[in-house]
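Deliverable D5.2: sample structural annotation.
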Amino acid sequence: MDGSFYGWYMKFQSDTQTLAVIPAVHSTRKKHTCSIQIITDNDAWTVMYTADIFQRTRRNIFIGKNQFGEKGIRLAIQTPKI
């Protein structure tokens, strides 16, 4: 195996809509990156980041200013495509 992927699947659902957010870390022999994938009922996007902005504590995962934890998420994605 040349690479690995480690991600956390978070799903939010109402009676009419579903949102999934997957923060992840990717590693190959030569490259380390992280990403946030956002999936709705109608579309999906992946935003890539450099690995140096990834942090993990006992209760939270951070990709830059984006925060993921047992109490919910906070997204701070700055891209025109989403």
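Annotation notes: The radius of gyration is 13 Å. The mean pLDDT is 93.
The annotation will be released with the project's public dataset once the embargo ends.
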